[in-house]
Specification:
Helices cover 31% and strands 22% of the residues. By secondary structure, the protein is α+β, with helices and mostly antiparallel strands. The chain starts with a helix and ends with a strand. Strand 1 and strand 2 form a beta hairpin. The chain is built from 3 helices and 8 strands; from the N terminus they run H-H-E-E-H-E-E-E-E-E-E. An 8-stranded mixed β-barrel has the order 1-2-3-4-7-8-6-5. The chain is extended.
């Protein structure tokens, strides 16, 4: 009888081990399958938080501008004792008088980001602030733009290359971004952009700039043509990898400022 029990016990242990292994494999497989979607969801949430932060400052800047425009010049109030004096009085006192100066320029809004998103386990950055909002209606794109192109920044949003012109200034402002595999994510749909498409950029101070696409090119990774600075016009260059998943070359989209 004892000899018959040992094999059954061993079989039972094997079944338990195999069952545990199957459960572990299933859990790990589920995590691997869902990790990309979890990351994409988190990135989308962070981008939305950056846009909300930008819109708060944009709205504040617009309100300040409206208030400044409502300020009118104060009417001249003549003192009864000075109304009958001649012009020499004002000439003599001009150097000693104090002039009230009203600054109609709205102050620049704060660049401090406000985020409520939890930080996940995969070491996402938590201190990225947007400098503006990039919109391309032809491909349903609306993204915050950050400053800098370090890898942690580009995981969340496209960034302006610091060595290039500021967006909207005379020169060439280069904005680099990933071409994610997920449809519509980051610069994924750049292959659909056509000549004449409008690109809009709204800065954090509320200024809206429009650009029209005049060049689409595929270049070698070491080609510096994307960074050439014009001397008398304002352009932006959107810079990403191509083809998707292979990234052997670079796709650049150039657009000239209209307003």
């Amino acid at each position: 009888m004892n000899g018959n029990r040992k094999p059954k016990k061993k079989i039972g242990i094997k079944i338990i081990i195999l069952t545990a292994a199957a459960i572990t494999a299933a859990v790990c497989g589920y995590w691997l399958l869902t990790s990309p979607s979890r990351e994409s969801e988190y990135i989308a949430d962070r981008q939305e938080a950056m846009i909300e932060d930008l819109m708060r400052d944009i709205q504040e800047a617009e309100n300040m501008t409206e208030n400044a425009e409502d300020i009118t010049e104060l009417p001249d109030i003549e003192d009864e004792e000075t109304t009958e004096t001649d012009g020499d009085f004002y000439d003599d006192e001009a150097d000693d008088s104090e002039t009230a100066v009203i600054d109609n320029e709205p102050p620049q809004p704060s660049y401090t980001p406000v985020y409520a998103d939890p930080i996940p386990d995969n070491d996402f950055p938590s201190d990225i602030a947007g400098i503006g909002i990039l919109t391309i209606e032809s491909i349903d794109l609306r993204l915050p733009v950050a400053e800098g192109i370090d890898e942690t920044t580009l995981r969340i949003a496209p960034g302006r290359v610091p060595q290039t012109a500021r967006i909207g200034d005379v020169g060439n402002a280069v904005i680099a971004g990933h071409r994610n595999y997920t449809f519509g994510s980051m610069f994924n749909r750049f292959g659909e952009i056509e000549f004449g498409d409008l690109i809009q950029y709204q800065a954090r101070n509320g200024e809206i700039m429009e650009f029209t696409v005049f060049e689409i090119a595929v270049i070698e990774p070491d080609d510096q043509i994307a960074f050439i600075q014009p001397l008398n016009e304002s352009i932006i260059t959107l810079y990403t990898c191509t083809p998707i998943r292979e990234a052997t070359h670079r796709l650049i989209i150039r657009a000239q400022r209209l307003s």
